[in-house]
Structure formats: C-alpha cells, structure tokens
Design brief:
Elements: H1 11-27, E1 38-40, E2 47-51, E3 54-58, E4 62-65, E5 68-77, E6 83-92, E7 94-101, E8 106-112, E9 119-124, E10 133-136, E11 138-142, E12 148-152, H2 159-162, E13 164-170, E14 176-182, E15 187-193, E16 196-204, E17 207-212, E18 217-223, E19 232-237, E20 240-245, E21 249-254, E22 260-265, E23 272-278, E24 281-286, E25 291-294, E26 301-305, E27 310-314, E28 317-321, E29 329-333, E30 340-345, E31 348-350, E32 358-363, E33 366-373, E34 378-386, E35 388-394, E36 398-403, E37 408-412
Antiparallel strand pairs: 1-37, 2-3, 3-5, 4-5, 5-6, 7-8, 8-9, 9-10, 11-12, 12-13, 13-14, 15-16, 16-17, 17-18, 19-20, 20-21, 21-22, 23-24, 24-25, 25-26, 27-28, 28-29, 29-30, 31-32, 32-33, 33-34, 35-36, 36-37
Length: 414
Amino acid sequence: MREPVTSRHFRIPLLGLVLLLAALPGGAATRARPAPPVTVPAAIGDRVQSRADRLYVIGAGVPVGSPVTTQTVRAYTLPAVHPLFEQSVRVSGEIVDVQAAAGDDLLLVQVRGYTDAGQTTIAVRPGVAEPLWTLPGALAGVLPGGTAVFGSRVVGAADTDTGLDWRGVDLATGAIRWTIRQQPGEQAALDTDRGAPRWLYLLREERLTAYDTRDGRPVAEVALPGMRPRSAVLWPLTGRLLVSSDATGSTIFDTGSGLRAAAHVGNSLTGYTAADDCQELICAYNHEGSLAGLDPRTLAERWSVVGEAYTTWLDGYLLTFDPFAVRPVIRRSDPVTGQETGRVTGWQFAPGPGSEVYLRRGVGKREWFGRLEPARMWVRPLIAVENVTDECQVTGEVLICRKIDGSVGVWRLR
C-alpha cells in the first residue's frame, strides 16, 4: 500500500486550490471555453440515465388505460450523442431502469408498479413492438456471456417478512433456468464479480448456504447453531462473508474456499447497518451515522469517526463526506488509524463511474466540475457550466446535466 501523504505535504497544493477557487469566476477566462453542449430534447418529467457509453431518455408516459401507460425509451451513443433507437414500451406502472444486453440487440426494462413495491422486468428488442418476454422481479445483473439474468421475485422493505424467489433466466427466451426460494424470515445477499452477481448467500435457521448463480447449484453450506436470521446481519466483502447475530456472535467466512470460518468472536455487530472493505480493515456504519474501522481478526473497533455519511476508496485512500454539513468537507483518512491526513472544503461528490472521484462546486452562476487527486488532495477543474439543475453526472469523457428547461446537455471533457 502506498503510504498516505501527511498533512504538511499538501498545505501548499491546498493553498493553491483555495486561490484557484477564489479566482474561478473570473479566472476561467484563462482556460479554453468549453464547446457548446449537444442538447438532447427532454421534458421535465422524463427520466435520464447513462450506462457506460449509452445515454437513455425515458419519457414520462402516455396513458392508454389506467393504470397502463406507454413510455418511450430513446437511446444515444456517448460521447458522440448519436441517436441509436427509439422504443415504446407499454407498462403497468413506471419505468425505473433500463439496461442493454447482448450489445444493443436487447433492452432490459425494469418497471415499478404504482400500488406496491413489486417490480417487473420486460425484455424488448429495439424496433420490435411486442416484448420478447416479461417476468415479475427486479433485475440484479447479467452474468458474463449474457446467457442469464439473476432477479428476485418481489422487492421491497418487507422481503424478509414475505419471502421471495431468486431466479436465473435465459435472456434469449425468458425461460427460468433455476429458482431458489427465500422463505419468510430468511436473509439473502449477493456477491458480485466484476459487477455481475456471482454468488447468492442464503441465511436460514441455523445454517448458511452459498449458491452458484450460473446454475442455482448449492456449492457450500455450514451449520450455525442458534442462528435466527431475522436478528442477524449478512454482509459480503471481497473474498469474505461476514455473518453476525446476538445468539451466535460474529464469523468471517473465506468464500474463496467454500465457507471456511476465517475468524470468529463472541460479540455481535447487529448495532451496525452496513459494512464494506477498508483495505486490511472492515468499515462499518452504525445506526447513529458514525463510521468505524474494525479489525478483521477481532472485529474490535480500531477507530471511529462521527457524521460521515458517505465513504469511498481511491488509490488506497479512505475518503469520507457528510452531504448534510453546512459547509461540505471531503476528508482523506489513514485506513489503519482513522486519522485525517487531508481535506478539501467547498466541493461535493458528483456521480461518476469506476474508480475516479468527481466533484462539484457552485461558484456564482456557474457549476464547476473537477476530478480529485487524492495523493495531493487537489481538485483538477474539468469544466464550468451554467443553467443546469442538480441532476448531473460525469462519465469520464462527458458531463451530462439536466438543464433548467428540462432538456439534457452533454459536454465533452476530452
């Protein structure tokens, strides 16, 4: 691991950043003005979504008989913003997500009903009026090769109470390849590999089972005497799985060798709401909103910080941010000690892909977007735009923003 830069090493760059920010409104003239954006027509009620090198504009819908509407999905390439296709889909509810599969030959549309939390997945081929198949359930991801979709039968806050079905689906036909039933009171968690759902873990009364999502086959199972899933937590980590309850204590399983117990302690972690990898430690959030670094061998707190609602990793550094603070501050911390080693003030995280961290800052009538360089805690300005809403995201090559008139602007960054 690269050693974190100490505070005295970034005072000069940070001072330069402050001077730069103070000069942004007038000093931007020294930079080449950005080329005019490509404007994509959209109404205020339309939904905008980008995935990799595709931009989707989802129309608000035209009623064709309550509660059925017809929504139109328009697809564009990125960064060129060339129109790809326009596809109408008849839905009972509203489209909340779209995802291309098999190139652009298949579009997976997720629809949420108006009356409940249930979702439906509709597969359509662009240019074909009738859907290829329709199945109840929320799409969790597409496996490598595009041969199957992994989805749940019902989604919502009451999953633990009602139970649900997890299914592997053939993309070409919609045929169900396998089904795994999660009974009421049981817990389930997905582990991903390169963004695709690879393993399904199901926590039942006194046992834990791992399933291969390619064929639904159980690949490992361990007994957990005294385990009651309703009062337990189940958190996948990289190559590990953390299971904890008041009755059984906490166990870290090595998922690379089945479900081998790598560490066990008697204390419970049910006071935490979520956990993630923090290099050699485990980062966990508690109900009060504080962040703690846990020792993976003892699960004891090495350090904790209060009021950090957002956490991300970049180049071996732990970055935290409280979006509710009056004056936004992004802090860089040593993941071993939890000690702050740098900060940037006045910038907020902006949605973006991959391992890059993009930031946003309002200066007068302009909205500046930049990329964070964590080693120096330096923000490299990328572009300043005007007349945009808070609905903006950076894709690496372009900035996509909803304008105040409802249309979508796409600015090239390279």
